[in-house]
Amino acid sequence: MIIEEISEVTNTDDYTIYLVNKSPNPKVFWCFLERPEVFVDNPHVFANSTTNLQVYPNQPGQNSFTIPVQYVVGAGASNNPIEEGIKIQSSVSNDANIKDEWEVDYATVPPNRGPLMNKSGEASPDKTISIQSSSFEKERNEAQGWYSSMTFGIKTSNGFIGMTWDPDPAEKEIITPKLTFYVSVGTYSSSTLANFTTVSNHSAKISLSDFDLLNNATVTLESDGTWKVTKGKSSQLSIDSINSLVQSHLYLSKAHAELVSLATLKPYYSNLLPSSSQTDVIVDFDWLYDSYQDEQAPAGTFIQGTLTVTVALTAAFSVFLLSGVSFNMSGQVGTTTFNFSYNGSASSEFIKSLFVRGAEIYLKS
């Protein structure tokens, strides 16, 4: 059993796990955080993650999870029991640091009320974070369909990784964070509780010793379904990056030549431009609609926006790929700005985090 000492890291450390997919099909990679020792023998502690990324087979470029060491504590109460397969989100959460002690005030119902969370003013033991629950009538609450939850984990560039459990009344959990990660593919869902044994048995395990001096590691899903963890950034990623840059240059050169030729043609020939794909980079973007901010929107994430690229569109493309995620688009040939939309299960926060000026996109019909 690997036990990572928290003294090895600080809150300024960022860890990057690069993802390579050598399987024949696109896969959604999920990241999970290993349980601290205090929870290892507790079957009522479940993995909870919103950190995922779709990666295409042998996809050029770099796909990764970036994990800043920023701990998070949270608490909630709802009509959902704390069980595998149930979606649980904290109604209150706070960034936490080593030696923090937090108090959570749970209500006895009726009426139904969410918890309150505050720092206690006391210090947790060295290398730990503590969470103390208040006194409350747990059995009475659950008999009336009101279930309390407590959560601990880490923020990532893609969301959250951690664990959720059902707290007992007036109980303190003293947590020594364990920086060991799992990367898996499977039918997981964002903020939906998963069994830790299932996660650990079908995943790649990444410990601190698997990262190089720059805090980089690479996880590869092999063509036979097995996992490989290598220290640092895979050399294949570097080769892919060079190939991608070369391919981008070729596409841009071809697009430029075709646009020059297009200028000599009659306007009604413009739709015949022989191009079915285009690689480009993001110059600017703007958000027009986000269902997360619309209380009447249906479940799921629906986002609309405008995107500006460097090279005028060489065809009436309908789709573009950004970090392995597919977006619908509509734009006219010869323009550099077009409308786009996303409709799927990834969180709004995750989708928006993909949009960075200078990021590469692949447009296709």
For the CA atoms, what is the radius of gyration?
24 Å
How many beta-strand elements?
23
Low-confidence stretches: 1-10, 238-242, 262-274
Percentage of helical residues? 10-25%
Textual characterization of the structure:
With 365 residues, the protein is mainly beta. The protein folds into two domains: 6-233, no CATH class; 236-364, Elongation Factor Tu (Ef-tu), domain 3 (Beta Barrel). It is 13% helix and 39% strand. The protein has four helices and 23 strands. Strands 18-19-22-21-20-23 form a six-stranded antiparallel beta barrel. Strands 3-12-11-6-7 form a five-stranded antiparallel beta sheet. A four-stranded mixed beta sheet has the order 5-1-16-17, with no helix packed on it. Strand 20 and strand 21 form a beta hairpin. The model is unreliable at 1-10, 238-242 and 262-274 (pLDDT under 50).
Short description:
With 365 residues, the protein is mainly beta. It has helices spanning 138-143, 196-201, 235-262, 348-353, and strands at 14-21, 27-33, 45-49, 52-55, 63-68, 71-78, 92-96, 101-105, 116-119, 129-133, 147-156, 159-165, 172-175, 181-185, 203-206, 216-221, 227-231, 277-290, 301-309, 319-322, 325-330, 337-344, 360-364.
Task: Summarize the helices and strands and which ones pair or pack.
Layout (H helix, E strand, L loop, with lengths): L13 E8 L5 E7 L11 E5 L2 E4 L7 E6 L2 E8 L13 E5 L4 E5 L10 E4 L9 E5 L4 H6 L3 E10 L2 E7 L6 E4 L5 E5 L10 H6 L1 E4 L9 E6 L5 E5 L3 H28 L14 E14 L10 E9 L9 E4 L2 E6 L6 E8 L3 H6 L6 E5 L1
Parallel strand pairs: 1-16, 8-10
Antiparallel strand pairs: 1-5, 2-4, 2-14, 3-12, 6-7, 6-11, 8-9, 10-13, 11-12, 14-15, 16-17, 18-19, 18-23, 19-22, 20-21, 20-23, 21-22
